[in-house]
Design a protein that fits this description.
The chain is mainly α. It has two helices and no strands.
Length: 108
């Protein structure tokens, strides 16, 4: 019987060793996968920061364009209003010149 107890202890210790080795293998595999996931996450994070920087630069350029746009370009409605005003003035000038020319023709 004492020999049988010793054999049980040997089997128990062997199983405990196998379980410990298997647990160590699983722990190492999980650590490897976690480190690989973190590296991938850090890579994605750095790419996201680059994208954010380029987006900020694009936003800054857009704001500069919005600020420069009124000084550089004329809206269609403003141009039409300006054109109508100039044409009215030219029409008045034409009418005045026509009247002056008619007056001179009558004097002769």
């Amino acid at each position: 019987m004492p020999e049988q107890g010793w054999q049980l202890w040997q089997i128990f210790l062997a199983l405990l060793g196998i379980m410990s080795a298997w647990s160590a293998i699983i722990i190492v595999a999980v650590q490897f996968m976690i480190s690989r996931a973190f590296k991938s996450f850090e890579k994605e994070l750095s790419e996201l920061k680059k994208t954010k920087d380029s987006c900020s630069a694009l936003e800054r350029e857009l704001l500069e364009l919005k600020a420069d746009l009124p000084a550089e370009y004329v809206r269609r409605e403003d141009f039409i209003r300006f054109d109508v005003c100039i044409n009215q003035k030219l029409d008045k000038l034409r009418d005045m010149i026509s009247e002056i020319l008619k007056g001179r023709q009558h004097e002769q």
